[in-house]
Amino acid sequence: MENSATYLMYIPLFPLLGAVIIGLMHVFTCKRPIFEKFYGIIACIGPILSFVLALRVFFNLKGMPEEGRYLIQKAFTWFQVGDLDVAMGFLADPLSSLMLLFVTFIGSLIHIYSIGYMGGEKNYAKFFAYLNLFLGSMLVLVLGDSPVVMFVGWEGVGLCSYLLISFYTTETENVIAGNKAFIVNRIGDLGFVLGMSFLFWAIGAHGFDYMALKANAHHLAPGVALTVCLLLFVGATGKSAQIPLYVWLPDAMAGPTPVSALIHAATMVTAGVYMVARFSFIYAHVPVAGSIVAWVGILTALLAAIFGMFQDDIKKVLAYSTVSQLGYMFAGVGVAAYSAGIFHVFTHAFFKALLFLGAGAVIYAMHHQQNIWKMGGLKKKMPITYYTMVIGALALAGCPFFSGFFSKDEILFMALANGHWGIWLVGVAVAGMTAYYTFRMIFVVFHGEPRDQHAYDHAHEAPLVMTLPLIILAVGALFAGYLNLPAIFGGDQEVTHWLAPVVVEHHPHVSKFVELLAMCASIVAFIIGIRLAWQRFGKGAEEPTFSGFTEFAYHKFYVDELYDSVFVQPYKRIGGAIRNAIEPNVTDAPIKLVSQLYMMVGQAFKVFQVGFVRVYAIYMIVGLSVMSLILSFSLN
Amino acid sequence: MNNDFLLLMPMLLVGIGGIGLMIASTYESITHERMAISGMGLFGVAFLFQLGNTVAHPTIPYEQVFNGMLVVSDFTRASGMIILGCGLATCMSAYTYFKQNPFCTSEFYSLIAFSACGMLLLTMAQELISVFIALEIMSLAIYILVGYNRQSQTATEAVLKYLMLGAFAGAFFTMGAALIYGGAGSTKFTEISASISANGYAGNAALIGGSFLVIVAFLFKVAAFPFHAWVTDVYEGASTPITGFMATALKTAVFAVFANFLVLNNGLHEGWINGLFYISILTMFVGNLVAIGQESLKRMLAASGIVHSGYLLIALVAINTEQFTGGVIAYYLAAYSVGTLGIFAALSYLGGEDEKRMNFADFKGLAKVRPYSAAAITIFLLSMAGIPPTAGFMGKFYIITSAISAGQIALAVFGIISSILSMWYYLRLIVNMYFHDAVDTFETDTCHKMAPVCTMVLALCVFAIGLYPIII
Hints:
The structure holds two protein chains of two kinds. Chain A has a two-stranded antiparallel sheet. By secondary structure, chain A is mainly α. Chain A has 25 helices and two strands. Chain A has helices at 10-29, 37-62, 94-117, 124-143, 147-165, 172-203, 210-216, 222-239, 248-251, 257-266, 271-278, 280-283, 287-308, 314-334, 338-365, 383-397, 403-417, 421-446, 453-458, 464-479, 494-499, 512-537, 549-554, 559-608, 613-635, and strands spanning 71-81, 84-92. Chain B has one domain. In chain B, 75% of the residues lie in helices and 1% in strands. Chain B has helices spanning 3-24, 32-56, 74-100, 107-124, 128-146, 153-184, 189-199, 205-221, 230-237, 240-262, 266-292, 297-318, 327-350, 366-369, 371-385, 391-405, 409-434, 450-467, and strands at residues 63-65, 70-72. Chain B has a two-stranded antiparallel sheet. The radius of gyration of chain B is 21 Å and the shape is globular. Chain A binds chain B through residues 595, 598-599, 601-603, 605-606, 608-609, 611, 613, 615-617, 619-620, 622-624, 626-628, 630-631, 634-635, and chain B through 157, 160-161, 164-165, 168, 172, 202, 205, 208, 212, 216, 220, 225-227, 229-230, 232-233, 274-275, 286, 288-294, 421, 424.
């Protein structure tokens, strides 16, 4: 068959194999350490090979006619129960091939960067084993040809995220952050599983892979489709940190910085967006669900942007900006601009990974200092980091002609074009806030005078193994946007065309004037944001004190505390009540009674085992007699 | 060579080898260590011969041997292999055991060979007198082995009880055989079967009474309720390797002949389904009750052996006389034998001098001092309790599915309940080994690795048989 490919399974397999090999090496060498770079180099092989294969997939697909552009591989039948026949199958179509390309590319770069960043850390090998495992799971998620296989990857990346957030296990806080991420994700996963089950119940009887589902999607009753969409979206809010489940992502910054860059910015957190785009054939039929997704997304973007303006930890700033950008992506897929949403996933992966890795270089140079109010003036000490980060920041802030500008603008424009002017308005405001907090961070960290002279004196530029990925990503952050250049700049929206066979969207015709106007609004917002940041922080500023609303925002609207008192504490109390009251009295008591009874009978039986042979003989005779009596009665 | 002799070769090897060992033991220069090695060699060769025989000559089921007196089928061969394997493991355990308990004389190993010879004959016997002869060959040797430690009061007591009660059972068997002969006019299974087919079973009082008495004798040998009382005392009194040998090889042989007897005719089997149903349930539950109250490990294992007999009785109830392969029974016997032999092999070296460590309390904290031994014992216990992925789990699984497919849902449920109850005493030892601090140093004569090696090999077998159930 021309659409079958035998090499798809190797794409996730290489990193997974790497994880196994490094894991075993770790087990056998943790007592007698070997040269640690060795692990890192082995770890890089898998992702790079996967990247090469991803390129092959891409060019294979490119050579196919547009309508039949997919590759499929059924590796083996995984399980078969009743109607459900799940193959361990992989599907590469334009959507997944785009995801594949940047996941493997950025994944490889971050692996290389980690060789430098993690140098000298304890459990160096374990880190790389987890990182490889993560990449393998992510690729299973992206390539899975049915929701079930996707769910395997979905859970795998969740597990790796948990393991890596808590990587520095010596501090209780990190472990708590890991737990929080895992538990919050589980709540989302429940939604995913329920949604998947509903979907199977409704239309799963004729095959449960995406091809069959897409063909049968029109059989879905509107109510069921809405339920499925919302349940799946609950899963997406968990994984992609949207309201109300966004709370885990800022805490997840407790993990090593390459992890934040790879998992909590570039790849894993975008899985929710990918999933919604994957299920676009259902979402497209349920505009209500789309609107809910879009509004949740844009409100998350707003909320996170507000929080981002008041953070003092460099990674927390970036974390909230990630939440905020994810909100944009959901706004995009929510207004049925799937290609715009996925395109923003794509560009965001470059500039956010760049920013995180840059922040990592700063943290590395400042000896694990993450408070921006302890930094300052680092521009002179770390020029490469500075310039690459500025490129990333400009892309994030949506400066014209940087990658973020094209993708974000595409989303906002599509929102406006589809009649969601409220979303557009909020989106523009958020764009301004994004520019403000991004450059607040840049100015405080790199400009002005050093606030901590001692740390400043010891700061130095990161080694080549770390700066090289920065430079490569900076190139990406600069030019990735040109892949989907809108018509207004003479482009032909290649990404949108590439994704067209997979996602179900329609492009309303809006006049060039409106498009230009929308663009101008974004640019104005950007300029206002960056100017405000310059005024306040450009020439050096002291750590501000917060009061009133700003204090409220600094404490993130006390959402964590609210969740704690509304959900966590009552839940704990119920658990405690069950353990202390119900379990010992209601469930354990009868069981204990039975066991005690049994023991008593056991003791009674011991009496018969007196040890006198005459008693045993009598025992036998009595038994024999009773048995013959029963026998003779049964014969009559 | 005549085909009949080829099929009987393992039995003949063991029998002739036993005589050879007996003659060799008259020389003072031959130490009992060398005898043990020879015993291992004998059982090993016989085992390989049996294996080769099975592989090289896949015979039709129930190939008659010696003019219909004996029969060879896959089931008897599998049972024979289990018995020979048990003999090999017992010799290995005994080698180390007698380093710490110096009452061995060289004849010990020849007696094991004789009893194994009787057991092999028993598995193949297809005629009541042959069965009786085989039973007696086996039992006589076992009686001596049980009372081998003549200084020990408990051993003497054990052999007395076993002998007296065994004589009872032997009398029942002879009586039963006589009645069957009266009822059917023959002692050959095939001719009894033909007679039942021709004249019916239900109305023939002599046949019913005779088969009843024969079955009682078998129930006695496998320690089923209500003929189980002797087993705890006898197992406790016998020396550890012999207890292991009795618990496994002897039970295998008797269950083989029991199954062969029941399947000889469909009418006979159906007539006993009800009776065996109640006996198997009572055996399982009484066995559990006896086991729960025990403090001594050997007594506990004896009682758990009763429970396992109960399971095997389920399998006997569930057999299909038309297409009997015995696979389920043979598999369970193999799984049970590996687990039980393993524990007794471990006890053989951990027991120390004069079997000083034989109670639950004596094994507190074993895991801290001897982690590998404790792990091996845990594996055996889990296998006996039926936890996946051990052989014991698969064995129970096959028995329960066979019960369900035979329509005996109630038996299957009782079997599962009983296996839950049995956790009590298996886990108790695990808890003792792992969750207590060590008070004992668990010093043993460490220069003789034979029993530890045997233990580890058997522990591997637990998983090997559990994961690759080849016998079925």
